[in-house]
Design goal:
Elements: E1 3-10, E2 15-17, H1 22-25, H2 29-36, E3 40-42, H3 50-63, E4 74-78, H4 90-97, E5 105-109, H5 115-130, E6 134-140, E7 162-168, E8 173-182, E9 190-192, E10 198-200, H6 202-223, E11 233-236, H7 241-251, H8 271-278, E12 286-293, E13 297-305
Parallel strand pairs: 4-5, 4-6, 11-12
Antiparallel strand pairs: 1-7, 2-3, 6-7, 8-13, 9-10, 12-13
InterPro entries: ACP_syn_III_C (IPR013747), ACP_syn_III_N (IPR013751), Thiolase-like (IPR016039)
Protein name: 3-oxoacyl-ACP synthase
Domain Beta-ketoacyl-[acyl-carrier-protein] synthase III N-terminal: 107-184
Length: 307
Amino acid sequence: MIGISAIYAEIPEQRIPTEPRIDALGIPLKTLQDRVGVIKTSRKASDQDTADLCVAAAEKLFASGRVRPTDVDCVIVVTQNPDGQGLPQTSAIVQDRLGISENCASFDVSLGCSGYVYGLSIIKSFMQDNGLRCGLLFTADPYSKIVSESDRSTALLFGDAATVTLMTESPVWKIGKFDFGTAGRLGQSIRKSEDGTLVMDGRAVLGFSMSQVPGSLQRVAAANGIALEQIDRFVLHQGSRVVVENIAERLKVEDKTAFYAQNYGNTVSSSIPIVLAENLLESDRCVAISGFGVGLSWASAVLEKVA
């Protein structure tokens, strides 16, 4: 059984406070506090790229002694902001930098906010189908590469980070069934402009999230044979405070989830694994996760702690 054995995150130490920037962007303080919810955004160094963040996360994993580079036979990187122009794939750069064997499968997955949940399904099935025993699933989408500091919809929201999830045959978390979906008709709601900067229609993304994510979580719970009441924690993509709190209210699970990203921001595909690594309680045995955004797409799953 392939599942999650460990998760490590690399969140750059540099933080950019948001409140000093609201006047220049014409954003009321109440909007920042109640809707955006981000106090500081994490920022990579100017000479760091996507692979650098992945390598830093992996070095924490290797330092823990849980696994050695020579054990790894699969590397997948979820990113839409790869090194250079994406050639070679960031996963190959990471494989080389970490000294992982050349007898290792590596590829990138181009997904954003739903990418971690999609990535879990991809790496689990890929490893099982090919008899692989030790995989690394990375997420890294440093949006500081594409966010305009003068864009009031995105400048105070996104932070940089990377995570690595160790996938083995001796997991701590068993991965259950999934629920997926795509609303491509709304895809232009989050996109790159002709000059390469990020454009986001926050109102459209919030409406999409409210219309799709509660139903997805209800379906995935039913697919795994459990009721929402049996889930100990709901880990939602940390899109913003308003989206997390509104989904929780719609499902009546306000006591089982929260917006955790105040001090680093929306880290895109890294937001869910960061919460899994840093914010779960020891008593959490059954966790529902849901990523949603770029595409527009969604993906939900249930994780159960192995006894």
